[in-house]
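ok trying this again, last paste got cut off
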Amino acid sequence: MPLRLHTIPFLLVVILTACVASVAGGPKPVNAKRFDSAAQAALAAMKQRAAELKIQGVAVVSFAPGDTIQGWSSQMAVVGHMTDHTNGEKGNNLLGIAYAKASEMANTLKDSGTSGRPPMTGEFGWQGGVMARVAKGYIVVAFSGGKSEDDVEVSKAGLAVLKARL
């Protein structure tokens, strides 16, 4: 009997160690320096693609850690201009539009303008943002300034870089 009493605590320690190791072995969060480096590279790729398409506007890249989007780190870059006046006197705030695309994706977990539901207040339902689920969270990328199909192409350039680096 004394042998069995010593065996039970030993087994408990082994089981607890295995549980802690499996939790610790999960994906580690992306650190700020790694995101900053990846974001700068993604924004550079987006600027290059926008130049190839001869468009200007605003690029936004974001990373949300975890299984649900509860917060994110993001960076943006003005690619030529932040606003335009193609919408008459009212004009367009391209930064606001890019973030509206990103907020729609955060809610639907689908590329902007593809959710299949009417846009909520604060959303436009416009294409130009793309996203991906990765092991450590979600990547959300948006561009505003060109035609929707061009905005998507610019966003895809940023997404490809972030997927490779995060």
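PB: full thing came through this time. The first strand starts at residue 57 and ends at 65.
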